[in-house]
Design brief:
heterodimer, A: alpha+beta, 7-stranded antiparallel sheet, about 25% helix, B: alpha/beta, 6-stranded antiparallel sheet, 13 helices, 24 strands, about 25% strand, elongated, binds FE2/S2 (inorganic) cluster, binds fe (ii) ion
Chain lengths: ~425, ~475
């Protein structure tokens, strides 16, 4: 599904052009005079107008990670995805593809589907029962006495979707950025061997963080703060993001272990034909990406205290449990960890300028049995703890950004990906406002 | 039950991913008795007589004895299981001596089956077997027994098969089975023997490895000095050797069979190279008192089950075979009243021969006791027509013509059913049918799996028979 069948949702720069010239100039200036290598000025994290611009320029124009195919295994299964003012229905259709529809009834605008996830045949609005096909066509509206009512004009608005390696991406722009297909070509071979179509949800966690979505993303793009993640530090080498010469004394031993584990992982990858090289194009393309396969500490299998597997069923046709983690960062709203035994997807869905929903989903092989092949508590423990710690970090920064004493500070070398994210963001918004 | 408006699912051709035993589909089915299943015979231990039809000398002082059941039935078993055989070692008028032997043949050729016996000159039974069992010999057997076997279906099917000496027999059965089936298995065999000329089945192993790209076979000599020209591995099992033959061992299921010392070493080494202990399956060919007792308990349980089933068949063979498909696969030896037998690993369940069939034959859900409690014959009856619809919640019978859509008459009789489009599109009228047949002409207001669950849309359905409806 790539064709947009409805009238344009929002013409380019609609919000910007409706802003008083003075305010627009002020905001444009904030973007223009952003100090490279430094965190953003406070309004980027606190200002409602900038949030609206973010929704329009970033979330309204780019490919957003919405869900994985495991969340809608059968025809008729759907999830609703909300961000900013938008609500989308992501629905598995009868052809095995995905339809994305705006969750806004064409009668008087009611939310058509009110559950976060479920299964449906046709879509029936709960208010006056307008009924839409899974493709979004209005197929029934009881309209006694109406003569000139043309159902053909009132279909649910559609958006674009792409399913790559079992991950579902949506784009509500009339014309989605074309380079996503290039990015998809980069990551598909890394992820496909994990075969998401043969996985199921073991657990899904939704947390609302009291922080601007950019702070959530910034926090994810560095491991400078990883000392604050004791559970994660058991399996994830805390030297992540560092290179020779940047290793602090207390991490030297870990660094050696990391290097050794990485070279044996790479040997395994070569044997099985799995790609592992780092591809890093976070701000050099519109669908920015970083992907690699990296070793884990201990047994090198999964995010457990000893690095041992957390689920006993291998994913896809993977031959070996010791495959570390294939990790991917995508701009603007997601990151992923693909292990041999389970996959964790993370999606960030902004609510307003100071709140964001972070949705974490743990996927295991669809034939893995809870209590037999995996223990749900153990499976989710490390990242549940880590998410809570990250939430606290993000909230500390949000509070800080609200203080009159706040002033942008410098990103350290190990925070180069944060800088890349911010650089990407600033470029994208400026292009949009131009 | 005929449903209009839904297209009957066309079976798609399916590639077998991993490994699937030919009987797996039959075992999985819950519907009526399947002829194919009966052809394979009951999947429980039974006592039966078998006649030796062939003997094949093997390397390493072993001999294969091929049998067929005297009653002509095939022997259904799983690759890796064993039979318990009564040998009249001391003559026909004395008590026979029981011994267990792994089946070395493949269950995919079930009309004959083999055991392979190593002659231990100091033993009581094996020399007698080598000497006396020949084509025409009839022996009493119990089987199949044992939880050491390949799974019925395994989409991953990556195995490391470890055998030492006579421990090759169940491994041979597994290998022959895999070789005889389609699928994407990946098998590594590591076979330890004491001397270069003592590897039973080596010719067949070499043949399978040469024609079946899924299989790799490695041989290793133990401690003794290796002879001239030996190109395989030497020395006892080590972690490095395991890692050499299967560097991806930690992603495999391991099946190991051999003497106790060998298996204990293997357990330790496998742990070292990262094989999860739940991925290790073992069969002991020698063992301490504990192991022996466990095997005895396993056989005793098999005897009990064999007798129980024999009685049931004697009572009513017809009923028994009717109930077969649902009872299939529930018996897994390797478990006794106190719990799982350690020697054979996983906790398994014993059969419940009285297990009720789970579904009514027409595929409609069972009418539970609560649902059945109100008696529709006491309900008021309204309307005219040749068919009766009993609405259990409302407590009313509605008479209706076979041409009428169900919704209207039901609503007029006071049954509370929400409805909007009345064209089978919106799904708002969806209700559950407890019995009877309908003809439905919907337009997307209901999904196939909801129909399977007994739901239907009364706005676009007519009744074909009397019906009981949960509304
Ligand atoms: S608002 Fe949806 S039908 Fe009226
Ligand atoms: S009333 Fe709409 S499907 Fe029956
Ligand atoms: Fe963190």
């Amino acid at each position: 599904m790539t064709a947009s069948v409805n009238a344009p949702l929002n013409s380019r720069g609609k919000l910007a052009s409706s802003l008083p010239a003075e305010q627009l100039a002020e905001i444009s200036e904030l973007f223009e005079f952003r100090r490279k290598g430094y965190s953003l000025d406070a309004p980027f994290y606190t200002d409602a107008t900038i949030f609206k611009i973010d929704m329009e320029a970033i979330f309204g124009q780019h490919w957003i990670f919405a869900a994985s195919i495991a969340e809608l295994p059968e025809a008729g299964d759907y999830v609703t995805v909300d961000y900013g003012p938008y609500s989308l229905i992501v629905l598995r259709n009868d052809d095995g593809g995905v339809n994305v529809l705006h969750n806004v009834c064409r009668h008087r605008g009611a939310r058509v589907l009110t559950e976060p996830a479920g299964s449906t045949g046709n879509l029936v609005c709960g208010y006056h029962s307008w009924t839409y096909s899974p493709e979004g066509n209005l197929i029934h509206a009881s309209a006694p006495g109406e003569t000139k009512f043309d159902k053909g004009c009132f279909g649910l608005k559609r958006a674009h979707s792409r399913v790559v390696a079992g991950l579902i991406f949506v784009c509500i722009a009339d014309e989605p950025p074309a380079d996503f297909d290039e990015t998809a070509k980069i990551f598909e071979p890394y992820l496909a061997p994990h075969d998401l179509s043969k996985t199921k949800i073991a657990y899904q966690q939704n947390i609302v963080e009291e922080g601007n979505w950019k702070l959530v993303m910034e926090n994810n793009r560095e491991c400078y703060h990883c000392d604050g993640h004791p559970e994660l530090a058991c399996s994830l080498f805390p030297t992540w993001g560092l290179t020779e010469g940047l290793i602090p004394a207390h991490l030297e031993e870990v660094w050696d272990r990391n290097k050794e584990a990485q070279s044996s992982l790479e040997e395994r990858c070569r044997r099985y034909g799995l790609p592992y090289e780092v591809v890093e194009e976070l701000d050099t393309r519109i669908a920015g990406i970083r992907i690699s396969r990296e070793s884990l500490d201990g047994d090198g299998e999964s995010f457990s205290p000893d690095g041992h597997r957390l689920s006993k069923k291998l994913l896809g046709d993977l031959p070996d449990f010791r495959l570390g983690r294939c990790s991917m960062h995508l701009q603007p709203n997601s990151w992923f960890h693909f292990q041999s035994d389970h996959v964790i997807t993370f999606g960030v869905f902004p609510i307003n300028e100071h709140q964001s929903l972070v949705r974490t989903t743990w996927l295991v092989a669809d034939d893995a049995e809870e209590g037999v092949d995996y223990d749900l508590e153990k499976l989710t423990y490390t990242w549940k703890q880590t998410n809570l710690q990250d939430k606290a970090f993000v909230e500390l920064c949000q509070t800080g950004a609200g203080s009159p004493a706040y002033e942008p500070g410098p990103y350290m070398k190990s925070e180069y990906q944060v800088e890349a994210f911010i650089n990407w963001y600033v470029q994208r918004v400026q292009e949009h406002l131009a | 039950m005929i449903e209009l408006g839904t297209v009957a699912a066309i079976l798609e051709p399916q590639r077998i991913r991993g490994l699937e035993m030919p009987w797996n589909r039959v075992m999985g089915t819950t519907e009526g008795p399947a002829g194919a299943a009966r052809a394979l015979g009951p999947w429980h231990p039974q006592e039966f007589m078998a006649e030796c039809v062939e003997t094949v000398p093997e390397a390493g002082g072993m001999m294969t004895f091929v049998f067929r059941r005297c009653d002509g039935a095939p022997l259904a078993f799983r690759a890796g299981q064993y039979v318990n055989v009564a040998f009249p070692v001391n003559g026909e008028d004395q008590d026979p001596v029981d011994r267990s032997y792994s089946l070395s043949s493949s269950p995919t050729e079930p009309w004959t089956f083999s055991i392979t016996v190593k002659c231990d000159p100091t033993g009581l039974v094996s020399p007698w077997v080598h000497e006396n069992v020949a084509p025409g010999t009839v022996l009493e057997m119990l089987g199949p027994v044992g939880a050491f076997h390949l799974p019925d279906a395994d989409r991953r099917a990556r195995y490391l098969l470890l055998a030492a000496g006579a421990g090759i027999t169940p491994i041979m059965s597994m290998l022959r089975t895999i070789h005889s089936l389609p699928g994407t298995a990946d098998v590594v065999v590591l076979y330890h023997g004491a001397e270069a000329g003592g590897f039973a089945f080596h010719e067949e192993l070499a043949y399978i490895a040469s024609v079946d790209s899924r299989v790799k076979v490695f041989y290793a000599l133990g401690d003794r000095s290796k002879p001239e020209g030996w190109e395989w591995l030497s020395g006892r099992l080590t972690a490095a050797m395991l890692d050499d033959v299967a560097p991806d061992a930690n992603g495999r299921q391991v099946y190991a069979c051999g003497p106790e010392g060998y298996l204990n070493t293997a357990t330790e080494l496998l742990g070292k190279i990262g094989v999860d202990d739940t991925s290790i399956n073992m069969e002991f060919f020698t063992g301490d008192r504990q192991t022996i007792l466990e095997y005895q308990a396993e056989i005793a349980l098999a005897v009990d089950i064999a007798e129980e089933i024999a009685e049931e068949i004697a009572d009513s063979a017809e009923d028994y075979y009717e109930s077969q498909p649902t009872a299939f696969g529930l018996y897994e030896p390797g478990y006794d009243a106190e719990g799982p037998l350690k020697a054979t690993g996983l906790p398994l369940e014993t059969v419940d021969p009285d297990a009720p069939t789970s579904e009514a034959p027409d595929g409609s859900p069972d009418v539970g006791p609560e649902a059945a409690t109100p008696d529709a014959s006491s309900f008021d009856t309204v309307g005219t027509g040749s068919l009766t619809l009993s609405f259990m919640r409302t407590g009313i019978n509605v008479r209706i013509d076979p041409t009428e859509h169900i919704l209207g008459p039901a609503q007029r009789a006071g049954v509370r059913i929400g409805a909007n489009c009345k064209e089978g599109m919106c799904g708002s009228c969806k209700i559950v049918k407890l019995s009877g047949e309908i003809e439905m002409n919907h337009q997307g207001g209901i999904r196939a799996r909801e129909i399977d669950a007994g739901k239907f849309l009364p706005c676009c359905s007519t009744a074909r028979t009397d019906m009981v409806i949960d509304a």
